[in-house]
UniProtKB/TrEMBL annotation, chain B:
InterPro entries from the UniProt entry: Metalloenz_LuxS/M16, MPP/UQCRC_Complex, Pept_M16_N, Peptidase_M16_C
Compositional bias (Polar residues): 1-13
Protein name as it appears in the record: Peptidase M16
Domain Peptidase M16 C-terminal positions: 195-383
Gene3D superfamilies associated with the record: Metalloenzyme, LuxS/M16 peptidase-like (3.30.830.10)
Every Peptidase M16 N-terminal domain range: 42-173
GO molecular function: metal ion binding
Pfam families: Peptidase_M16 (PF00675), Peptidase_M16_C (PF05193)
Annotated stretches, region: Disordered: 1-25
Amino acid sequence: MPMGHTATAQAGSGGLTATEHRLANGLRVVLSEDHLTPVAAVCLWYDVGSRHEVEGRTGLAHLFEHLMFQGSAQVKGNGHFELVQGAGGSLNGTTSFERTNYFETMPAHQLELALWLEADRMGSLLAALDDESMENQRDVVKNERRQRYDNVPYGTAFEKLTALAYPEGHPYHHTPIGSMADLDAATLEDARNFFRTYYAPNNAVLSVVGDIDPQQTLAWIEKYFGSIPAHDGKQPPRDGSLPETIGEQLREVVEEEVPARALMAAYRLPHDGTRECDAADLALTVLGGGESSRLHNRLVRRDRTAVAAGFGLLRLAGAPSLGWLDVKTSGGVEVPEIEAAVDEELARFAAEGPTAEEMERAQAQLEREWLDRLGTVAGRADELCRFAVLFGDPQLALTAVQRVLEVTAEEVRAVAKARLRPDNRAVLVYEPVTAEQNENDQEEGADQ
Amino acid sequence: MSDTAASLTNMTLHPQPRPGTATPWAFPAPERGRLDNGLTVLRCHRPGQQVVAVEIVLDAPLDAEPKGLDGVATIMARALSEGTDKHTAEEFAAELERCGATLDAHADHPGVRVSLEVPVSRLPKALGLLAEALRAPAFLDTEVERLVRNRLDEIPHETANPARRAAKELSKELFPAASRMSRPRQGTEETVAAIDAAAVRAFYEAHVRPATATAVIVGDLSDTDVDAVLADTLGAWTGNTAEPRPMPPITADDTGRVIVVDRPGAVQTQLLIGRIGADRHDRVWAAQVLGTYCLGGTLTSRLDRVLREEKGYTYGVRAFGQVLRSADPATAGGVTGAAMLAISGSVDTPNTGPALEDLWKVLRTLAAGGLTDAERDVAVQNLVGVAPLKYETAASVAATLADQVEQHLPDDYQAQLYARLAETGTVEATAAVVNAFPVDRLVTVLVGDASQIAEPVRALGIGEVTVVTG
């Protein structure tokens, strides 16, 4: 069958190139020129995420990320935000299991400002970090948790699934948002230690992408970041390795005030960076990506038992990746009916593999997603950092789509057969209860 | 830098750098044309953008939905891609995804929008599918029935979502019951259940035709013969002509009042505070954009400066203006469009009263003292400066061009807006935002635990408080 078909003549790298540099203090730098639009993206990945957190301090990496916007030696208060936005830039930071990233997209003539700002906080955050910021951002993050997870139907599903799929004590057992109790317990000294341990130039990768002069950019980076001392206090994260499959079906039933029954499941999948992970991505796309997927056709179109049905992939490098199934039921349909249909579809897929047409569709979808990611300077900067931090080679970002296109149907079938099995999943079932039931349950709970 | 700061850092500190010379950038000017079938086409070449964006604007507004059939425009929009004269629903979805394409269609007050994104090499194929969906949708009974059931299943999920629930309640409060704007865009359980294939086809036949539609195509078109591709695809769509449909006037009751949608046990209160105001045709729009940004555009704006960064009551509160619908100046007959002006966010339950008190204090302080020149300058620099970032992708350019068409604005509107923003002074921006958010003419919807929040909110005196359930 025709493999490796591409949507554009240059698919794969798209004609993009990147150069790599390293400062004496260990800061790795990746530069990529693109003069189509007068913008430049700065992206800084610190090799620290929630997997580095210790017991009793979940959520610290993310809370700390907030503190990085509260000023440094030469930047007052919210100055980081004010200066970037006042220069016509946009910015943010995010925290995941495996890394914390900070990024600014600037009009090209304001690039130097973004570099100066990132260097100032990398080298001198503790000059400004105080109790007031800590208390304020603790409250902000607790409200972030309420808004995004606690006050939304099914909002804590991901947290529950993760806790099931990765055993107690595993570095990925808890999610980056952390628990309310741990957020309350974090101290200013914890934050300071976190900075001293992880926020070092030799624990970061800086990428700059867009309408840049590479020589000038490198000179600015040397000027602003070059004098920040390296330090090696970092402990490696706890070991995230696990057997390839769970070996049993784990299950939790949640009775909550949700609008409909739901079946969710997390399958343990190959690590990011492997060809098997790309094969798993294609398998999940054929099975549950978009409106022509097997599960959508079966559950939403034919059986009409679901409102929505799909699969997502959480790629992880330091632990097995997760394939996340999410089905919301239609009307009064019961979960066992959905589960039987899902199992039937997965078993058939494991036996037969994808058709040639399904492979073509899945590869075309993933290729477009890559073109989208690499189509903006910010997306490209983030991907260059990702491959540099997680896999040691930023160039891999530019050939990632090619690797997805090289995967064969047989490899897709093989990974589905090995991994998408009932004894390799954690299942979360939602059964709706009314507000009154919920209240009674709570009262009973209080009596005990 | 203080001595303490110096003692805590051992890097070499450099002064803040000065910016280089800005490279001029302008919002792209589209090329406007018309096909023989009457379809208006806006095209815009964006070098390097390999994923092409196509937006179709259909003159099928929600107020054209027959009485009792709210949601028929939504079901029609969704049914366009559920089978045609050449493909079944499953085949159509498969063919589209084979192109690596995504297709979304939705109905809103001004009309129906269909958005396609596809890698440029597969544009001809995907445009062919899009043309098929517009030209010859099957609207089979079974597919429409499925879409209706699916839509009915979605409604409880929306009701359970605090932000969606708040938006629905605000529309109901603001607009007169007879106005389509008072009711949910995608219909209620009752009206959606009444929709069948015949109703969908009737709506399609009455309101979907090339003569009143516009296609916007944006991306790297250097290797594509756009005229030839259009002739083979959207050019084959036929239909009669129609008179422009007059827009009904938009009125709203913004008497200051508070509606609490009771959610026992909620850990946060979702707040949505709004009224209606000027749309883009009004000269005040640029000043309103500028002033609204200063009030609540970002976390360093006035609202978050207090509510988030000082008090920690919220993850973030935003003020915004969103056009509901605009009239065509050529046929308006005195009718003007309107935008929803609103403040939204969520605050923790125990601090709901204090947060609203602070929010009103921010509004009163703004009305009393006005914006500062520094605030105005930073806002202009941001709003104008981010344009090249904001419009990096084909999809973002296409969406703005399509908005302009839908709102009956000239093709150079966005380009001119940047010039107007740069000219707008502090006094104008202050007047516009104070006029947009008068403290006694705001309707407040709170989705939260009434037993905890109703009393503290009553004590604020920001209007009569009513508690509703559901």
